[in-house]
Design brief:
Elements: H1 2-13, E1 18-19, H2 21-28, H3 32-40, E2 49-51, E3 54-58, H4 59-81, H5 91-103, H6 105-124
Antiparallel strand pairs: 1-3, 2-3
Helix pairs in contact: 1-4
């Protein structure tokens, strides 16, 4: 990320290695007055140098700061995009669920059992009457 940002800053400012607060205003979106306030409170995030009494910021320090800010922003974005962890099912909940499945086992296997019973009824039916639906079909 640092290399990409540094390349972009070099394209923007050419051979210029030290930038003025006015140059930073366009990049950071912070006015020169606010930059001065932050520097006086020692809260300006980028190291500064004075050349002939004028404030300057190295293009390398600026790229390093922007790369760090981009990394922090990416981490925050990833944190908001990840789905919340699902609640782990307790042992008693698993047992209760298994118990419900076992109690109602016929609901899941009923179709197969009913088809077997229907087939047997067809085989046992010697009267030749057509097959009629029985009461156990209404449960499905």
């Amino acid at each position: 990320m640092f290399a990409i940002i540094l390349e972009d800053l070099r394209k923007r400012y050419g051979d210029k290695v030290l930038l003025d607060p006015e140059d930073l205003e366009a990049i950071l979106g912070v006015s020169t007055g606010q930059q001065a306030n932050l520097r006086s409170q020692n809260r300006f995030p980028i190291p500064i140098t004075k050349v002939g009494g004028r404030i300057k910021v190295s293009i390398y320090d600026l790229a390093k700061h922007l790369a760090g800010a981009a990394k922090e922003e990416a981490k925050a974005q990833i944190a908001t995009d990840t789905p919340p962890a699902t609640k782990k099912e307790s042992r008693s909940e698993k047992k209760a669920k298994r118990g419900l499945l076992e109690k109602n086992w016929w609901l899941f296997r009923g179709h197969h059992i009913i088809s077997i019973l229907d087939h047997r009824q067809l085989l046992d039916d010697t009267s030749g009457a057509p097959f009629t639906s029985t009461s156990y079909d209404s449960n499905l």
